[in-house]
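Ticket #4471: structure output looks truncated?

Reporter: J.K.
Steps to reproduce: submitted the chain below (256 residues) through the standard prediction queue, then opened the result file.
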Amino acid sequence: MSESAVLLEYRGQIAILTLNRPHAYNACNTDIRHGMLEAVWELSNREDIRVVILTANGKGFCAGADLRETFPNNVQMQLHKEYEPTLMGLRRLNKVVIAAVNGAVAGIGCAFVAACDLAVMVEDAYMQLAFSKIALVPDGGITWDLVRALGYKRAYRLMIEAGKLSARECEQYGLINEVVKEDALGYALDWAQRLCALSPVANVLTKRVAHHAEELDIHGTFAIEAELQLVASRSADCAEGVTAFLEKRAPQYPGK
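Returned output as attached by the reporter:
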């Protein structure tokens, strides 16, 4: 992993994953693509981590793909081999993933935010779907999120006109959870500490249920809930939660 382009720091049960090309507004180049892929792989194997925060250094969160790099001969292959494993990996991590958006986010950067479970954005930040400015199609799965959040007509217009969503609009449409005046990372760290006190088993299984619920009908969702409830009910976390409730104390979840 490139130490300069992507940083991975551990603070107890929290991991901070940072895009670190502030001079280029963290535009995705080869170093960021490869660094993110390696970082997500490492995180997937860390059983001690309960919350991951994805953030960026500098004034912008991510300016999208770095157009100063040579355009790939086969962008389809690049998306499948370099972006998809990272973006789907974030969605599938058995941890809570929070995006701490410190500034403007555009292009593929929007897909990074959308791939996180939760998100906080500073109030002067915005999300811009800039693909059409260079005659490209939105990618990284972002169309999936936008159509569901905004509805087809609003999402389509936003994408073809390279539209912009303010932090408040992102909150309104459910693309993020919170808007803060400043210091998105500080807010995310406090939030992560609170989440670490919750049951990791329940957090992860609920994440799986929620993802399935986006695709299934009520009967399929009921079945997945029942299946994962069986897993949860047999966990040490559940036993601790019930015991703590009966003893009227705060639970200390072992995470298994």
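Triage note (M.O.): checked the attachment and the full token line is present. The CA atoms of residues 216 and 222 lie 9 Å apart.
Status: closed, working as intended.
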